[in-house]
Amino acid sequence: MAAKRSLARVAGLDVDLLSRLESNNFRTCEDVLTRHPFDLVELLDVNLPVAEKIVTCVARACCPKPVTAKQLLDSRTDDPHGDDDGSSGGGGGSSASSTRKTPAFVRAHLAPLDDALGGGVPTGSISELVGPAGAGKTQMCLTLACACAAPKRCGGLESGVVFIDTEQRFSSQRLAEIARAKFPETLSPAHAPDAASAERELESLTSRILVLTPSTLSEMLQRLNGLEEALIDRGVRLLIVDSVAALARAQFGRGQLTQRQELLGQIASALKQLAERLGMAAFVTNQVTTRVGARVRHAHDTAVRGGGGDTAGGGGDDADSPGSVTAALGTKWAHCVNTRLVLEGAEGAVDGGEGREEGGEGGVARGGGGGGDTAGDDGGARFVARVIKVVKSPRCPLVGFECEVYAGGLRVHGDRKVRVDPSGADAQGGIRGIYQGAVL
Amino acid sequence: MADSKVASPTHSPQWYEDSLQLTSVPLAPSIRSKLQNAGFVSVRDVKGARGPIDLARETGLTNAEASEVIKALRLGIEGTALAGAKSASEILYEESRKLAVFTFSKDLDDLLGGGVAVGEITELCGCPGIGKTQACMQLCVSVQMPGAFGGYEGSAVYIDTEGSFMAERAKEVAQATVSHLVSISQFLPKHLSESGALSQFTVNEILDRVHLFRCHEITELLAVVESLPMYVRAHGVKLVVIDSMAFHFRQDFKDMALRTAILAKMTTQLLNLAKSEHLAVVSVNQITVKPDPASGVARLVPALGESYAHGCTTRVILSWESDRRMAYLFKSPRLPRGKAKFTVTNGGIRDVRGMKRQVDLK
Questions:
Q1: Edge-to-edge strand order for the sheet containing A126-130?
Q2: Chain B partners of A104 at a C-beta cutoff of 8 Å?
Q3: What CATH number corresponds to the domain at position A226?
Q4: CATH number corresponding to B15-80
Q5: Where is this region: Disordered (chain A) (predicted)?
Q6: What SS3 string covers A309-329?
Q7: What is residue B225's predicted lDDT score, i.e. its pLDDT?
């Protein structure tokens, strides 16, 4: 932590200067760098050249070491990308971890999605999955955890996973089921040649996944800050937070949005630091929020109003249509996220209103896809395909796929692409605002 | 101080020095009080002293301190009132020779008066996913284009506060740019195409000249900006990207006055750097919502507040207009407001129509 770096550890400051700094309550680098050199002259009673020298020394000590893009590229390997046809076989991860390079991705074993993202969930940054209730967010998380913790000989990374479960949705039974269905040759007693070893493999897989259940946002931040050691010891390559929104929305009411956003920003910062320094992927889920009515004037206010309040949401110029949905937590959070995936649509067998709303979304998503063979019409469709979309990524263009939830977690159909409409303009009632633009 | 008047050199108008009190010069308080006790009130009084030894004798400072005082007083106010002034025609000449950094979208370049200008801070604001980071990566590559193609052949510094820079993506952009230049090089006049301009312009070379600083907190960002001048000179940097300015500033501060002060300090440093080293500074800003109490309607505005809005020279707002990415020139000292379509392709920032940029061949 450069900010808290003690001035005593800054090279180039002599004892006299140090004592002078300390007697004036300058203890850390942060104290010096947030001041103008002229302030230092006044406060420390030194000449301007000396003040400038102090600033230079401190800056040199705090300055992160630059790397060139080439070095960065060389230090990361695409290896997990190497064999992507085998969601059940191959050893892509093994060679990645045998070298000292940090893999650039954690493969999700969802072939078309992995390809689209350039190899999988990117390490070193925050990826987010947004979706309405029942869309399959937790399923996706479990699938990812499973793929990451799976033994190397079936293509996994055999690494630790930290699952921060804020909604008490983690189901180890479901995890085991996904693992068995996804990697039947090694993990399922029914299919594997040796039932006992399959059980053992499964047990070691599940033991690699560590579940934390913080009950408040601040507790989560504390835990994240104290997690370093455990992350290193367990070789964690994937940190899942399912979901960020639940705690944020529970802990803070309407009047406390500023505190909420501040805390969220700190969490994002902590996640990014951990992800980048440990070469792991941070994967968080986010809820959606509904905006009814058209109190917002511009389409773009939506995502933004989400930041202002959870009641704010979709809407926009045509926000009169009720039930327009957008990602929760607002633009500030949306800016913090490096990659954003959207999961939408679900079997409409839930209860009345909700099912209806989701049916609408799914139907629209299909319409946007331009070719729904099952014609998910708004009207009476009880079954609509789920769609997973990449709506923000520094790496890849916008793309969407149909997907389904099955015994082995989530499955993405690479052949059924869905057109992603960037601004969400034609998605009447779909998840909008998530990617909606600003007309300023 | 009668004798100081006699000793004072009688060249050039120094009216502004008369009025400059010692309190407004960055001197250590103890030294200043010694000077004041000895009757030195204004800068002219001190300059009247014959030299450091004289000054030291009169004030009780050590010789070294006195010498420091005299140096400090020279700071910025040496010479005549017109020192460093240029006529508009000189500036016009200088500016006409300035190149801009191409964005690779003709429309966007036209909007910006040829590209991202050198010697200025250009701010890109926009909603998440609009392509701010993409534009920055594109600029990092295009600033390195060989001179034969109208490029700067400079390196780029990328200050990444958000962790969005992806080397893999930069590689794609670099590849596309290289292959584009190779494809148009056959149309170049012979002496240029055979001069080997492209031999240095390979993907590896390009990536080698993008220097990445990953800042995890505000202190690191401040430290980087503080050490930039040296780094820039050492590496021939022609483009500094800060992606994004907003991230740390929006959460690490409780004291808004301090935030404003630090932002102003950083902006000044960057502006000075841009001017003195003739480089382009691109800063990325996020957007935020600002409720308008009058109408009860929330508006989307760039983050970091009103005072920061004055800091950048040119402000470009990227946003969606129906399905199109659109860049709005919101603020510029020399260009009219306007807008331009652009798109993000596999190869980087491009025109919507997919037109190839017309290279100015000489």
A1: A209-212, A160-165, A236-242, A281-286, A126-130, A339-344, A386-392, A399-406, A409-418
A2: 167-168
A3: 3.40.50.300
A4: 1.10.150.20
A5: 73-99, 299-323, 348-377
A6: CCCCCCCCCCCCCCCEEEECC
A7: 93
Residue A30 maps to a domain: yes
**CA dist., res. B253 & res. B221, Å (int):** 14
DSSP state of B151: -
Which CATH number does B90-351 carry?
A: 3.40.50.300
Distance CA A62, CA A9 (A): 10
Residue by residue, DSSP assigns B4-16 as HHHHS---S--HH
Question: What end-to-end distance do the CA atoms of chain A give, in Å?
Answer: 38
Mean per-residue pLDDT, B229-244: 92
Q: Judge whether residue A288 has pLDDT over 60.
A: yes
Q: Which two tokens mark B83?
A: 């020192």
Whether the full predicted model's pTM is greater than 0.80, yes or no, is no
pLDDT at B6 over 60: no
Q: Which residues of B touch A437 (CB under 8 A)?
A: 127, 130, 319-321, 325-326
Per-residue confidence (pLDDT) for residue A393, from 0 to 100: 84
Looking at residue A82, its pLDDT comes to: 37
ipTM topping 0.85: no
A133-142, A199-208, A287-296, B59-68 — which is least confidently predicted?
A287-296
Number of domains in chain A: 2
Report whether pLDDT(B158) > 90.
Answer: yes
Cα distances (Å, whole numbers) of residue A219 to A166, A234, A281, B31? 11, 21, 21, 51
Inside any domain, residue A107: no
- Asked whether residue A418 is domain-assigned, the answer is no
Closest partner residue to A394 (CB to CB) among B166, B216, B296 is B166
- Of all residues in chain B, the one with the smallest CA distance to A5 is B219
Q: Which residue has the higher pLDDT, A387 or A241?
A: A241
Answer whether A295 sits within 8 Å of B247, measured CB to CB.
Answer: no
Give the ranges where B25-166 is alpha helix by DSSP (H): 29-37, 43-48, 52-59, 63-74, 88-96, 106-111, 132-142
Q: How far is the C-alpha of B353 from the C-alpha of B351, rounded, in Å?
A: 5
Q: What pLDDT is recorded for position A433?
A: 37
Q: Chain B partners of A70 at a C-beta cutoff of 8 Å? A: 167, 204, 207-208, 210
- Domain range for A28: 7-62
Dist CA A367 CA A372 (whole Å): 7
Q: Is A271:A239 a contact under the CB 8 Å cutoff?
A: yes
Nearest residue of A to residue B243 by CA position? A335
Q: With an 8 Å Cβ cutoff, are B287 and A297 in contact?
A: no
pLDDT in tens, A336-370: 888 888 887 744 433 333 333 333 333 333 333 33
Say how far apart CA B330 and CA A1 lie, in whole Å: 37
Last residue of a domain, one of A19, A42, A62: A62
- Per-residue pLDDT, B353: 66
Interface test mutation site (partner B, options A70, A74, A439, max chain B beta carbons within 10 A): A70
Mean pLDDT confidence for B156-177: 90
Q: What is the mean pLDDT of residues A118-142?
A: 88
Q: What is the number of CB-based contacts under 8 A between chain A and chain B? A: 267
